[in-house]
Amino acid sequence: MKVLFLFLFFSPFFQVVFAIIDGFRANSLDTLSLVSVIPRFPDGYTNVCGGVLIAPSIAMTAAHCVFLNNEFAITAKVTLGDVSLSEEDDGEQEFRSHAMAISKKFGSGIPEANDDVAIVFLPKRTNVCESPVSSQIARLPTTVSINFKETPKIPSNFQLENSICWIAGWGKTENKTASHSDSVLQMMVKLVVRRIGNKKYLMAKGIVGSSRACMGDSGSPVYCFIDGRRTLIGTVAHIGSFVKMSQHDPSNHLQFCRDFEYAFISDWRESSARIVEILENYGELYQLEEGQTLCFGSGNF
Predict the structure, then answer these.
(1) Which pick of 113, 164, 203, 235 has the fewest CB atoms within 10 Å?
(2) Which residues belong to any copy of the Peptidase S1 domain (predicted)?
């Protein structure tokens, strides 16, 4: 069994979280595994991020959402079935977590999109997969790191670049300090794999109007129809450059976000290795297979 050491580091670039500009009200069937993640840090700072349920009591989000300035959030409010941040929605399930983990690779040198993932352990199991329209665990593709009998094989770059895909989340829709969208928004995206230097990155571009990812969208799930089924492909990591974002005037974040067509995605085909390592260390890896069988096993919808 691999042993994971949580790596603590300081990086001012990860104090920015990313929202959907010019999105539309999300289709509930497209967001059944979406969660809102609202962490609170020791100094009282809070932010809004997206996340996704990947096992009965495990949510995944962006590492920089729950780890800032060399410390973890002291608590994170995770809500499954959340539509409006300011109201209690029918069927929503709210949890308060004090247990979070990131991979040591997140702090090794220049942060990479595929390392920008975190696990939030929920204090109890969620109620999921009771009907085709109730909250669900995300359908996870098989990767080189983990194999699922019930779910699709590793999607190829060609398959992803030619699939119907979307992002859903909350976040800034106005140039104000805390003007996150109260309702979850969605945008359709085209995925592309681009080489930057000697590395390849999965990126997403809005394809309807001027839709963009921006502050508030970090950790939000990216889904595609793979073999006709809604499948998790990754989570939003960042847009443009963290250095440029940290230096940009907060009063004009929307213009900054509009200047970048593409968002960097933590590609599940790569980031799953980090997730497997974390869960192995905590003895919770079994939950991934259990969740896929619970929601997508033989006889299920």
Answers:
(1) 164
(2) 20-274
